[in-house]
Each structure stands twice: as structure tokens, then as C-alpha cells.
Amino acid sequence: MKLRILGSGTSTGVPEIGCECAVCTSADPRDKRLRASSLVHTDDGKVILIDCGPDFREQMLRMPVFEKIDGVLITHEHYDHVGGLDDLRPFCRFGDIPIYANAYTARHLRSRMPYCFVDKSYPGVPQLTLHEVEPGASFHIGETKITPLEVMHGKLPILGYRIGRQLGYVTDMTFMPEASYAQLHHLDLLVLNGLRLGKKHPTHQNIEEAVTVAERIAARQTYLIHESHGAGLHADLERMLQPQVQPAYDGMEVTLSP
């Protein structure tokens, strides 16, 4: 299995428009963060997209190949996680694309993009099939078992995912129910949100809180995503954190042994 971080940034991206801080003006490409999204290549050759934000088109133009997407896992309906769904149109040349989301998110997607989720769509719209999933109710994409799990984004219940035996993916979380912790044991790789250093946020955990969660889950390796410019320079954060919990960056790839 291989994971590629397409975007490691929060909803505003980094650099943030109008900001001249050291992070937003950094020349280090690791400090350029598109909105959070990832791509998984499974051991049986399937391609799974996690979230599809407004930077999706730019993220795909950076990819070395144009290939079929076998499923899209949506964590929640906020624009920075679903704003690029219409840009899936070129990938529909390979066939309809399954979209997986909880019932709340599915309802919002049908309301915002009704032209995508009707029985008789007009030519040129993305061909998307919407599947409602629930925490704890596993399904498969190809041979890979996907288990949705509930996490709290402030007061909003959203989804994280366990993908196969090895990978866990959680973003936009403030806290996690005990049942969800139980679904994330024995991971090789955890992708986890960490917004910024120090100051707490009402709907996102900060980096210190993320480190505490990562230590409890105890994956072999954890990478932090959904970072704002408040996370500081990538190079500084990399030195500050322990080797088993590190900041992710756009374009980073991690290969997991079968």
C-alpha cells in the first residue's frame, strides 16, 4: 500500500492570502500547503481518494499519471474537503466513481450538487454514485477493507477511516470517542490533524493535543496534516517533534509493506 499526501494544509491553505509571516513567505516548498487530501494505492491496484477539496485539480495536475479512481472517502461536508468534487469529471472516463460519506454529509452533497446525484443527469456532469456509510460498518474497495469511525469536529460528528490493516486517517478532529480509539489499534501509519502550536481551537486539535492522541494510538509512524501557518516552519516543527510523530508535506509518499 502507498499513501501520497496531496494536500497537508488547513481550510485557508498556506500561504494564507494577505499574510506576510515567516511561514507564508518561506521558500521551503514543504511550507506550501494545499487543502487536506490524500491518495491511497492499495496492494490490489485500487486507487482511493480521501476528500476532494478545492485544490483537487491542481493536485492532480502534479501527479505523474492519469488513472482511474476507484472510490472517494469523504470525511465531512465542509468546502475544503468537498469543493473539488466537480473536478472529478475527467476521471469519469473510466466509469462512475463511488463516493462514500455519512448520511449528514450525503444530504448536504445532494443539496449543494443536485446535478451530480439525479437519475437523469445532463451530459458532461461528473458521474458519481453516492453511498451512505456508518461508523463501524465496514465495506470493501476491491480487496481492501474500509472501516469508517466517528470523530468529533467540535460538535459535529464526522468520519475518520481505517484503510486495510495498516493505515488510519483522521482529520478535523477535536476529540475521539473510545470506540474509535479501539478501531485504530495496531496501525503502521496514522495520518492525524494538528492545526497549530499552542493556542487551542474550538473545532480542531492543536499540535500538542495531536501528539497526545498519536501517543495513545501508538502507530509505528504518525504524520500530521491540516496544518495552518500557526504550525510554524516545517523544518522547525520537524526538529521539535519526536521521530515517530512528524509533520506531513504536500507530495510526500509513504510505502507500507504488505
How would you state the average pLDDT, rounded? 97
Strand runs, count: 14
Quickly name the level 1 CATH class.
Answer: Alpha Beta
Query: What general outline do the C-alpha atoms trace?
Result: globular
CATH-level-2 architecture:
4-Layer Sandwich
The end-to-end span amounts to: 7 Å
Radius of gyration: 17 Å
Order of helices and strands: EEEHEHEHEEEEEHEHEHEE
Number of folding domains? 1
Would you identify the regions where 5 or more consecutive residues have pLDDT less than 50? none
The CATH superfamily is identified as: Ribonuclease Z/Hydroxyacylglutathione hydrolase-like
Please describe the biggest sheet, giving its number of strands, its sense, and whether it closes into a barrel: 7 strands, mixed
Q: How much β-strand is present in the residues? A: 25-35%
CATH topology: Metallo-beta-lactamase, Chain A
Order of strands in the sheet with most strands: 6-5-4-3-2-1-14
Question: What is the quaternary state of this protein?
Answer: single chain
Helix amount? 10-25%
Structural class: alpha/beta
Question: How many distinct helices?
Answer: 6
Write the layout of secondary structure elements.
Elements: E1 2-7, E2 37-41, E3 47-50, H1 56-61, E4 71-73, H2 79-82, E5 97-101, H3 103-112, E6 128-132, E7 139-141, E8 144-153, E9 156-163, E10 167-170, H4 178-182, E11 189-193, H5 207-217, E12 221-225, H6 234-240, E13 245-247, E14 253-255
Parallel strand pairs: 3-4, 4-5, 5-6, 10-11, 11-12, 12-13
Antiparallel strand pairs: 1-2, 1-14, 2-3, 7-8, 8-9, 9-10
